[in-house]
Specification:
With about 350 residues, the chain is mostly helical. It is built from 14 helices and two strands. The longest helix has 28 residues. It starts with a helix and ends in a 14-residue tail after the last strand.
């Protein structure tokens, strides 16, 4: 470390001592003391200390000082990752946008880091944290879907792969439900072409959507109303064969009877699956009631992605702490996050 950088680091630390004096000091092991030959370590330790205590702005300043003043520091990977965390934990929409950029920067600068998959999952989580219910703006859900697919495709050996797949499944459920609602609106207002396009898109992109039977039935109904009885019958039949225990299968059976069409037999494998699923399906009434009042979709904001909190400070950028981290699901619509 050359003399110029060392002196600049000491100047930064001296100024920071004045800033934090009124806010309470740091622990003895990260005070200036006899460690003037390690200003980058002190900057990192103080930034981590502030991050752990929710002082996100102060932590962010320290991380940025370390990154800009000591670009060759062994603490640089941790500082870059930590900078992303200061924004993510800040909680405002603008902070979450910045968190995405910082974690993507981490992946760009440290593509071979064993924590690049964690950073990618944090990018996806920053969108999940902003998601709204399926009857609202789907933008964040669509972006979360993209980032989770990037995670799964880019890190097939990650120990976070199962979590990413579970998150993707939950996100797609919400996106598909939103698409079906749009299709329903189009169908109700007479935009049959638009409705059919929406329903077909769901069938193509989200075959595991839990309301796929209803999607098929509404598609058939829309086609029937649009004077396409032949195609409608195909989808009525599909509902009955593939989803025999659904309410939509009952409705499709009644519709085919009205049209004087033969009723197909259910697929035995589909019938067995439906019987098994019905034994474990459903949520408690209180969970459903709570969901009616919540702006948030029914998707967990808990993740096992690594955090620098709990890191052993070995300085190699590999020692990010593991463990489940749960974030508050509500995005703050302000410019000043908590702890600042």
């Amino acid at each position: 470390m050359d003399l110029k950088k060392r002196n600049l680091g000491l100047m930064v630390l001296s100024l920071l001592m004045l800033v934090v004096a009124s806010c309470g000091g740091y622990p003895d092991d990260i005070e200036l003391g006899d460690s003037l030959d390690e200003p980058d370590r002190i900057l990192y330790s103080r930034a981590l200390f502030d991050l752990e205590r929710g002082q996100f702005t102060r932590s962010r300043i320290l991380f940025n000082n370390l990154i800009n003043t000591y670009p060759d520091s062994e603490y640089l990977p941790l500082a870059k990752f930590g900078l992303g965390e200061t924004f993510y934990r800040g909680g405002t929409r603008s902070n979450l946008v910045q968190a995405q950029a910082e974690f993507k920067d981490f992946i760009t600068f440290f593509p071979t880091s064993p924590r690049s998959d964690d950073a990618q999952l944090w990018v996806a989580m920053s969108h999940i944290k902003q998601m709204e219910k399926s009857d609202r703006d789907p933008t964040q859900g669509l972006l979360a879907e993209i980032e989770l697919k990037n995670m799964i495709a880019g890190y097939p050996d990650s120990n976070l792969l199962d979590e990413a797949k579970d998150k993707l499944r939950a996100v797609q459920e919400i996106v598909a439900d939103g698409g079906m609602r749009v299709g329903n609106f189009y169908s109700t207002t007479g935009n049959f072409v638009g409705a059919v396009d929406r329903y077909l898109e769901i069938l193509d992109k989200y075959p595991d959507f839990t309301n796929i039977s209803e999607t098929l039935y509404r598609l058939a109904e829309t086609m029937l109303r649009g004077q396409n009885q032949g195609e409608a019958i195909v989808y009525y039949n599909r509902v009955i064969r593939d989803y025999p225990l659904s309410k939509s299968a009952e409705d499709a059976t009644n519709r085919l009877a009205e049209l004087e069409q033969p009723i197909p037999d259910p697929n035995p494998a589909a019938l067995e699956r439906a019987q098994s699923a019905s034994a474990v399906n459903g949520k408690g009434i209180f969970s459903k009631m709570f969901g009616l009042w919540s702006r948030r979709p029914d998707i967990s904001t808990e993740t096992s992605a690594a955090s620098i909190i709990g890191n052993d400070e070995d300085g190699d950028g590999q020692g990010l702490g593991e463990g489940t981290f749960e974030v508050e699901g509500t995005v703050i619509d302000g410019s000043s996050p908590p702890g600042q």
